[in-house]
């Protein structure tokens, strides 16, 4: 096992050396210092094993033993507009920025001019134009041991999205960041890096979607940092519909300024092994953070959601609702940490995790973890795991719906509770359509449906 | 041929026999009342007829429109025109009343070989039927029964009945939890829906609903069997004298109180 791990570390170290060579002298920058530090961090430990507390239920061995080649090509890998049909938000979006294997595709993106004070550019472009500005945000990223794959993201950091809204600016329609994995047959790793900055009182909705074009083995290793300034209002929706052979590790981190309002809706429908860490820290008083999640899995899928909410300042509110629908032999993991620091008085935190098991073989490991150091706070948490309610099924059947239709309707209602919290209508429609197809005969149909 | 023919029906739950031999027949155009004290098996009978799976039929048969009712799944019974108004209507968060009812109606219409209604036709029908039970339109946009008051839930049951137009409606203690005004509205709705080719079975503990829905036949259920049947005057007598005189007459042991289902 140790040999295998050493081999993995050597593999990525060699890939990193190749990557450095290709940078043509760009190795003396502050950014590259950050990459090197991250590579060193990864090299020191490699992938975490299940003996690591944060990875007890998620065995990364299948990911670790696959030799993924970091995708750095910068071409569209044969992806065309036609491939994106059904994945775009269309008129509903203010901008649709498309990335192929983690790299910005100018050809496939639709970037109409935006109001003054709002910038949406590729990260590579932003790094060329204003490296210091971008570095200031990149260096504020925190890697905890629980999100170690994020260290590899930083090591290979070279492209992604940079979204900046100056103070007081607002967009009514969402910005869509669409990450498409190409059909390349060789296992590859994409390392998109997303930086979203909402200035004081700015308002924006960002949709991140991750899609595949084939049932191929690859690894999306994404990191998103969202900086919400004082009084900013940010909605961040992620939709992950990837190949049933895909690995997905994601780390999304929100930093909430005074009085800011952040809502995150994280929808996971595809992938073989998915581990998402969504974290939020209150950096000022009166912040409000909502973290919602929905995972639907069947077959051999594993979806692991870790959330961390750090009430570092007083008078902040957090609401968390994570739901899973598991069928077949799918496995779910939920770990919800809430820290309430000593001076974070008047904290109001509520966490709920609900799981619907549709088969006898599906399992969920759920663990709320509240660490409260202040005394004048309101914190609640609850976890419920169950099956469809027989009485509800009978009620629907007694009106003429057949059993499968009744079960599908109730399963969809369970999911709908999260879907309706998304404020992007075309995204809600897309999810509704997806559910209508994937919920069949009272079951979650095969994850193959995740391929268009 | 009777619309509903129950013969020597025995049924129970977890090996506990609750219905101990029920026979009755209901003709099209009739209204039957099934009365009885708590625990007599009234709701069990309603549940068995609607196809509630927790009950096991151990003996007897039920024919509905000449067909073996007990062999049908609950949804088949519904599509064949049987309707149970629940004693405790179930709350279904996340499923809108309108969406659910349209799906139900179209499943029934499809079964009858009729065209499914589109959204516009369905709304037109709903508007007409709302008047039957004076139900507020806003309730229909909400999830099924979620957050409804007891009275609203019962009205919603009769509203569903008005839309689905069953041949045989079984009202399971629809009067419980209703104030007198709501009771009158619900009863009037049922009366307006009644027709020569349809039948209603009213399951109730009290006589008062029968002031508004006048039964042709009253059956008294005790300890899982019908101990007496008669006309409307039987209900009035029960109102006046209670059930004990029947207990003595029928020789039913007073101490025996099977678990209420």
Overview of the structural elements:
The complex is a heterodimer of chains A (452) and B (261). With 452 residues, chain A is an alpha/beta fold. Chain A has helices spanning 2-22, 30-45, 61-64, 81-84, 123-129, 131-138, 149-155, 390-397, 403-419, 425-438, and strands at 69-70, 95-100, 103-104, 118-122, 160-165, 175-181, 188-190, 193-198, 203-212, 218-228, 233-241, 247-256, 261-268, 273-282, 288-297, 302-311, 317-326, 331-340, 348-357, 363-372, 378-386, 439-440, 443-444. Chain A has one domain (2-388). Chain A contains ten helices and 23 strands. In chain A, strand 22 and strand 23 (443-444) form a beta hairpin. The longest helix of chain A is centred in the first third of the chain and has 21 residues, at 2-22. Chain B has 261 residues and is α/β, with parallel strands linked by helices. Chain B has one domain: P-loop containing nucleotide triphosphate hydrolases (Rossmann fold, 3-Layer(aba) Sandwich), CATH 3.40.50.300. The radius of gyration of chain B is 18 Å and the shape is globular. Residues 255-261 of chain B have low confidence and may be disordered. Classes of the chains: A alpha/beta (452), B alpha/beta (261). Chain A binds chain B through residues 389-392, 394-403, 405-406, 409-410, 412-414, 416-417, and chain B through 50-53, 73-75, 77-79, 83-84, 86, 89-90, 92-95, 100-101, 103-105, 107-108, 111, 143-144, 160, 164.
Fold topology:
The complex is a heterodimer of chains A (about 450) and B (about 260).
Chain A: H1 2-22, H2 30-45, H3 61-64, E1 69-70, H4 81-84, E2 95-100, E3 103-104, E4 118-122, H5 123-129, H6 131-138, H7 149-155, E5 160-165, E6 175-181, E7 188-190, E8 193-198, E9 203-212, E10 218-228, E11 233-241, E12 247-256, E13 261-268, E14 273-282, E15 288-297, E16 302-311, E17 317-326, E18 331-340, E19 348-357, E20 363-372, E21 378-386, H8 390-397, H9 403-419, H10 425-438, E22 439-440, E23 443-444
Parallel strand pairs in A: 1-7, 2-6, 5-8, 6-9, 7-10, 8-10, 9-11, 10-12, 11-13, 12-14, 13-15, 14-16, 15-17, 16-18, 17-19, 18-20, 19-21
Antiparallel strand pairs in A: 2-3, 4-5, 22-23
Helix pairs in contact in A: 1-2, 2-7, 5-6, 8-9, 9-10
Chain B: E1 4-13, E2 16-26, E3 31-35, H1 42-50, E4 56-64, E5 67-68, H2 74-79, E6 82-85, E7 92-96, H3 97-111, H4 119-133, H5 137-141, E8 143-144, H6 150-164, E9 168-172, H7 180-193, E10 199-204, E11 217-222, E12 225-230, H8 232-241, H9 244-250
Parallel strand pairs in B: 3-10, 3-11, 6-9, 9-10
Antiparallel strand pairs in B: 1-2, 1-4, 4-5, 7-8, 11-12
Helix pairs in contact in B: 4-6, 6-7
